[in-house]
Predict the 3D structure of the following.
Amino acid sequence: MTLSRFATKNAFRNRRRSFITAISIAFSLLLLTLLMSVYRGFYIDQGPPESALRLVTRHKVSLVFWLPSYYREKVRTIPGVVHVSPWNWFGGIYKDTKPENAFAQFGVDPNEIFDVIKEDRVPPDELEAFKRDRAGAAVNRALAEKHGWKVGDKVIVKGTIYPINLEVTIRAIYDSDNAFDSMFFSTEYIDQALPRVKGRTGTLYTLVDSPEHVTSVSKAIDEMFANSPQPTKTETEKGFTLSFVAQLGNVKLFILSICGAVVFAILLVSANTMAMTIRERTREVAVLKTLGFTRRTILSLYIGEAMTISLFGGLLGATGATLLMIIASKMPNGTFFTGFKVNTPTYLVALAVAALVGFVSAFFPSYSASQRNIVDGLRHIG
Amino acid sequence: MPQAAEMKSAPAATKLVQANHVSKIFTRDTFEVRALDDVSIEIAEKEFLALMGPSGSGKTTLLNMIAAIDRPTAGELLVQGENVFRYSDKKIAEWRNRHIGYIFQTFNLIPVLTAFENVELPLLLTKLNKNERRDHVMTALTLVGLGDRVHHLPKQLSGGQEQRVAIARAIVTDPTLLLADEPTGDLDSHSAAEVLEIMKRLNEEFGKTVVMVTHDPNAAAYAHTTRHLEKGMLLPG
Ligand SMILES: Nc1ncnc2c1ncn2[C@@H]1O[C@H](COP(=O)(O)OP(=O)(O)OP(=O)(O)O)[C@@H](O)[C@H]1O
Ligand SMILES: [Mg+2]
C-alpha cells in the first residue's frame, strides 16, 4: 500500500455517499463542459484561417437597412482587398417551417463567391455551370444529402422578405468544413424578378490579402462611406456572427454566470461531503498522528481523497459531454449543439475545475482536522 | 539533526524516561482540572511498568506526556535524555513514529484497511521500500500470531485478534518504548491473557520498555513493577 492508495481507499469508504457526490459533480461538469464548448465556439474559436481574412460590411445602423450595390466596386479599390461579393439574406422557407427543413439562402455573385469563401471546395465544372445559370444554385453537400438533391434538381424556396419565390436548379454541390447549411444563388435572379430592389445589397463579403491588412481595410471601408447617407459598419466574419448572437441578449454574461453557479454548486456539495467525512474521522486523525503522521501528510491524504472523488466525477461528466456533443452533431436534423464540439483543452479545463473543486472543498475541513489537538481527538467519542 | 546535541542534556543511559515534577492542568471553561500533580518518575530501559489508579487519576495523561502527545503545564520530561517538546511538531511526529509504539484500549484500527495494511501504516512514513515494508509487516504479524490473517479486515477479526493487529502496528517500526493504555480493557480474559503474554514476550525477548495502564491486578501481575496514581499524584512505589 502507498499513501495515495490509502487516500483512494478512504475515498470509497462510504461508497454510497462518495458515489452520490461523484455523480452530482459529474452532472454539473457535464453541463459546464457543454457551456464551455458553446462559449468557446462563440467567443474564442477563430474558425478556419481564411475566416479571419474575411470582412462583412453592413449598414451602420442595422442589418435591416440596404447598402448601394456600387459600394462593392468602391471597396474593391482599397489596397489589400482581393475579392468582394454581395451577400444578401433571402430568408425563404423550403417546404414548411419545420426546423429540419430550415437552411439559409444567400444572394451572391456566382463569379466571385467561391473566391471569397475559398476554403469551400466546388468541382470546377459544377462551378462553371453555377456561374452560367442565373437561376442556378449551389448548396453544401450535407444539405444536398439531407434532401436528396442532385445536380440538375429543381428546388422552390418561398420568399418571406421578398414577395417572390426562388425557383432554382441545383448546379453545384460544394464541400465545406463548417456545419452551416446554406444555398447560394445569383443576386441577378432577384434583380430581374423584382426590379425595384436592383442596385441594393444587404451586406458585402470581402476577402483581404493578409492578416496585417484586416484592421486597416476594415477601417478604410467604413471611413470611405462615413459621410454618405448610408454609412457602414465592417466586422470580421467572427465579429459579425457574434453581433448576430448578441441580438439574443448578453449571451456571454449569461453563459459565464451559469458556469459560475454550476462551479459554486458543486463546490458546496463536495465541501459538505468532505466536512461530514472528516468530522466522522476525528478520532482516526488523532490515531494517525499518534502513529507519527504529520499535519501535512494528513492534509494531503484528505485533499487527495476529495480530489479522487471529484476527478472521478469530472471524468464522467466531461466524457459524457464529449459523447453527447458527438451524438448531437450526428443527429440528422441538427440540434442546438450542431457545430460545437468538446476539444481537448476544454476537456482538460473541465478536469482541472473538478480537481480544483476537490482541493478547495477539502482544504478547510482537512486543515482544521490536521490542526486539532491529539488528546482531544483521542477522547472524541463517535 | 542540528538540535540533537543540545537535546542530550542528561544522557543517563539506563533511564529511558525521566519525569521531573511534571504537572498538567486542563482548563475547562471556568475551573481547572489538575490531571497530574508534581509527578516525578524514572523508567529504566527494558522495564515493564504497570500504572494503576482510579478513573480520572491521570494515567492516560501521563502516558500521553511520555508519547509527546500532550505537553506538561509545568516540569520537565526527558525521553532517552531528550526533551522532545523542544522539537517542532513535524519532528515530534517523526520521533514518535520511530520511538513510540502506542496501543489503545479500543484498538483504533482503520476499518477499510486489512490487517496487513493497518500494520504497514506507520511504515509508509519511513524510507523503506515495498519489499522491506512487507518483511517488517510479516515479522510483526507473525510475532503476534496472526501470520495467517493478513488480508482480513478488522471487522472480520475478533477483539483479541484486533488488539494483536494493533500491537503489531505498534511494534512494526521497532520502537524503543511501548505504551499501552488499558490494552485488555475491552477483551475477555482469554484474549487478555494472549495479549499480555505478547507484551511480556516483547519485553523479555525483544528488550522493549513497556508502560501499561491497567485497572486489572491480574494484568499488572505481568509487569515488573506497579505504580499507583491518585488524583494526579504518584504514590510512593
Ligand atoms: N483534554 C482534556 N480536557 C479536559 N480535561 C481533561 C482532558 N484530559 C483529561 N482530562 C481530565 O484530567 C483528569 C485525568 O484524566 P485521565 O484521562 O488522565 O485519567 P485516567 O486515569 O486515564 O482515567 P480512566 O481510567 O478513566 O481512563 C480527568 O479528570 C479528566 O477529566
Ligand atoms: Mg485513561
Notes: Chain B has a mean pLDDT of 92. Chain B has one domain: 4-234.
